[in-house]
UniProtKB/TrEMBL annotation, chains A, B:
One GO term of the biological process aspect: histidyl-tRNA aminoacylation
Enzyme class: ligase
UniProt organism field: Saccharopolyspora phatthalungensis
Name the record gives this protein: Histidine--tRNA ligase
Keyword Protein biosynthesis: yes
Enzyme Commission code(s) on record: 6.1.1.21
Protein's gene: hisS
Pfam family, one: HGTP_anticodon
GO cellular component: cytoplasm
Amino acid sequence: MPQVVEPPSGTRDFLADEVRRRRAAFDTISAVFEHYGFDPVQTPAFERLEVFAGKLGDEAAKLIFKILKRGVHEASGEADLALRYDHTVPLARVVGTYGSRLPSPFKRYAIGNVWRADRAAKGRFREFAQCDIDTVGSSSRLADAEILWAINEALQALGIGDFRFLVNSRQALHGLLEAYGIAPQLGLDVLCSLDKLDKTTPEAVTAELTDRGLSSDTAESLVTDVTSPDTDRVRKQLDTTESGRRGLSEVDRLLSLTTGLPEGRVVFTPRMVRGLDYYTGPIFEVLAEGYPGSIASGGRYDGLVAKLGGPDLPACGGSIGIERILATQQTKATTTRGLDVALTVLGAEDDIMRLAAHIREHGLRTGIYLGSSTKLAKQLKWAHDQHARHVLIYGPDEQATGEVTVRDMDTGEQTRLPLADTAAYLRDRHATR
Amino acid sequence: MPQVVEPPSGTRDFLADEVRRRRAAFDTISAVFEHYGFDPVQTPAFERLEVFAGKLGDEAAKLIFKILKRGVHEASGEADLALRYDHTVPLARVVGTYGSRLPSPFKRYAIGNVWRADRAAKGRFREFAQCDIDTVGSSSRLADAEILWAINEALQALGIGDFRFLVNSRQALHGLLEAYGIAPQLGLDVLCSLDKLDKTTPEAVTAELTDRGLSSDTAESLVTDVTSPDTDRVRKQLDTTESGRRGLSEVDRLLSLTTGLPEGRVVFTPRMVRGLDYYTGPIFEVLAEGYPGSIASGGRYDGLVAKLGGPDLPACGGSIGIERILATQQTKATTTRGLDVALTVLGAEDDIMRLAAHIREHGLRTGIYLGSSTKLAKQLKWAHDQHARHVLIYGPDEQATGEVTVRDMDTGEQTRLPLADTAAYLRDRHATR
């Protein structure tokens, strides 16, 4: 009895339609990033364990898949390699490894799997694709804006119609805390609470802030101001502090450099908080109608490349949540790629092989019956299962006259024509679809 | 100081040109296999360790990369997962996992990395791509022939001009041993010696066979017969035994089903031996002018899927040695993908962002200067480093008149034209290249 073994927990097998769907999405994103002058980079699936040492937070470090030493060292139970956790640590490593051999600035995109030993759950995987785009070595605001433009175009190309970039700035968040007189030691907690405003009610967040030690007046005006669709009050507050003004100017520069995007596509969102120990400048996330959570995010992270072991270079970038997008779009019908032409086999096999070759020369997807049945009905069932558009019948009758019967599987119509004309006939029928 | 860390031993970083070159090769192969009605399958990078248990030979088993258990189990030093060693074990697992939900026969191709902890050496990697094509569930000789046709077309599409398929049969090898009166216990050793005939002289192989216990008459006539370009003598010998006749008939069927291929493309090669505990029927390997070793190989392996833990189904397939092909082709010049249009930045940044967007709408690869210099000369150097075909200059002069200067980097020619006409002008210039 064969064992029936599933793929490992949290991983997936992708069969035909799904591979094609994923490949098409990755190709779409690549093509857009290429147009923006970004170059692809592919790093190995694993890195030396030391590359990760101290680079990831404690929580993240627990999630890396470690690879056991090999040969005589296997018995030690020690690891020396680890599967990549994201594309950012390898990016920092590559910038360190190749240094001045890379273009400056280094604009690269990376599309590929990463592995995290996260608790497996619906929609959460241990092997999943990330699509990252980053510019290392530029402090220009144009670099930040370019990331938004490129992600905007990629999302449009993926068929996502209604989406918007929420933008904010790490500096603006600093300024916000200062302007509302929040004690530095409360800062992180307060921002964590504000971050919940997209999932919970303003009242609940206000209550949480009060619990955290803010006066109810401060909590209430902070929440009211940051959730107001009109950002004027927050802007006035930010204007009272140095970081606030710097943050506002970052945000306004980004808004100005993206005025070419559709109206309302980029929105200053003062309550938006992202990875605080990561980003240093403008930050963004993308929300889309009909998609859960954010489908892209990013920002400027000037200190990170050095922290991850690379040289001290400014950097900004973003990531498209491609798994989330693919999972949501999956509910729409996936089309199966069937055969253009299916050849039944009723003897004369050498002729069949040559005929198939001629048909393929016209770019048609062509399959030959490989089963053991000599019954036409059974072979037609196979052709039907293969979603074949045309079936060729070359039985003793046809062989005697050097002809082929072509059956249109949509209409059931059958046409008999000379063997030599078959490939051209099929080409014409498929060209006009 | 940043650490300079190389990628792990035996693995490679692929930068822009190399990623594109590899991607193009994989796309080429995919397109051909799709035309033959094969469907893509992607399995996870790792499998449960039990999937490999007892499935690989001792030598192979030593080469698998094992993944340490996680969390509280990490301290045990035990592994529960392993990186995939090839695409065949995962294929058997997939056939077992999905059973009747897969089409029958199941024609699939797999292109992707596999990992082997082999001693790193020039041209031998620990992470490398394999391109496999297999048909599971068909005993038809058409299935064997189809694999040859598909690989033939893929190799042609990869630009390999001069190559040939050496074909033989496991049964013919059995028959050969029998016909020449070789004791069964010597069979394996004798075949191992014959397998060296493509690398060493007939004399050396004859001597080795004599050492292994064959009479010098037998050794000499065996080596003479199997190396003769004329296969008549071997055919006559094979005709004297049951396995020999079965093997010959397999080979002749394959030759007959591939007569549509160029003359001399498929050659019966009685001395050709491949993986004896693997293949059960026809076998082949492909040699090409200018390429070292074989660049593709395969055959029928009816017992293997069951042995690897899948259901007991007949199967045949082949694999393209894509790393070897890519490495050999690498010596030819690789073209760098430069920018079609490089935009310098001399103020008016919002206009620049919009202008870049218009140009990209015409499908041109467009980059914006992201450095900190305001000097045109420095920005032109950047454009040159980016292999830009055209550079746009939009300085204070041009801004005052609403014009742009377009510089052709090949000719040095400069043209000044209205901002609004720039995108269309560039489109036309690139369309005519």
